[in-house]
Design a protein that fits this description.
The protein has 241 residues and is α+β, with helices and mostly antiparallel strands. The protein is built from 5 helices and 12 strands. 24% of the residues lie in helices and 22% in strands. The radius of gyration is 22 Å and the shape is globular. InterPro entries: DNA/RNA_pol_sf (IPR043502), RVT_2 (IPR013103).
Length: 241
């Protein structure tokens, strides 16, 4: 029930509905009337699809920084110079981890409507795909977690983090939405980072970095090669159509 607050007043939302809200549902932030004290029990009338959210009414800031291509290329160059390996993690359903600051409500999913409370809606605790503020909520979540783990964020690159231990070495992490690229001088730090991230969030360990932002990355014992063969072939196919 991580994503939903208690449903209708005095009742618990059906357990089966927790997974169903990930499907496309109507979403709309509802302002609380001055006389209303039950923030989880709202009239469902007036709920609208996520694409109809209005700025300054349904959401405020939505901007979320992502890693630039030149940042990744610099990271690859540094790893090649130092003889480090680059690794990649993929966060599953990343936006679902973002904690919402605004009040956002969703209609009860079809097939999981609570009897006698058909006019009630659920209050979201965390973001869903389709919400305008979902990317920013995820960035705030991952940023706060990395900072709490002792990582220092770059003053010029908002998605670049570094952690240094005198007795262990250095670890550098770059985030691009739900993809995480990391490298460093210490195998211990690399393994600890991977273990902690996979414990905190549901992730897929992709191993050595091999493809990112349109670049193929080939890592050998002595060198790192990058190319955009796939991108070039796509352009050629497009031009010959």
């Amino acid at each position: 029930m991580d994503h939903l607050a208690v449903g209708p007043a005095g009742s618990q939302a059906p357990a089966s509905s927790a997974s169903s809200v990930a499907q496309p549902v109507s979403t709309r932030r509802r302002h609380r009337p001055a006389s209303t004290t039950d923030t989880t029990s709202k009239d469902a009338s007036g709920s609208q699809p996520g694409y109809a959210q209005k700025p300054a009414i349904d959401f405020n800031e939505t901007f979320a920084p992502v890693a630039r291509l030149d940042t990744i290329r610099t990271l690859i160059a540094l790893a090649a110079q130092k003889g480090w390996k680059l690794y990649q993690l993929d966060v599953k359903s990343a936006f679902l981890n973002g904690v919402l600051k605004e009040e956002v409500y969703v209609d009860q999913p079809d097939g999981f409507v609570t009897t006698n409370y058909e006019d009630k809606v659920y209050k979201l605790k965390k973001a869903l795909y389709g919400l305008k503020q979902a990317p920013r909520a995820w960035y705030k979540e991952i940023n706060a977690y990395l900072i709490s783990c002792g990582y220092v964020r770059s003053s010029s690159k908002a998605t670049l983090y570094c952690k240094t231990k005198e007795d262990s070495g250095t670890l550098i992490v770059s985030i691009y939405v739900d993809d995480i690229v990391y490298t460093g001088s210490s195998e211990e730090l690399i393994e600890d980072f991977k273990t902690e991230m996979m414990r905190m969030y549901e992730m897929t360990d992709l191993g050595l970095l091999y493809y990112f932002l349109g670049m193929a990355v080939i890592q050998t014992e002595n060198c790192i090669f990058i190319n955009q063969k796939k991108y070039a072939l796509t352009l050629l196919r497009f031009e010959t159509m």
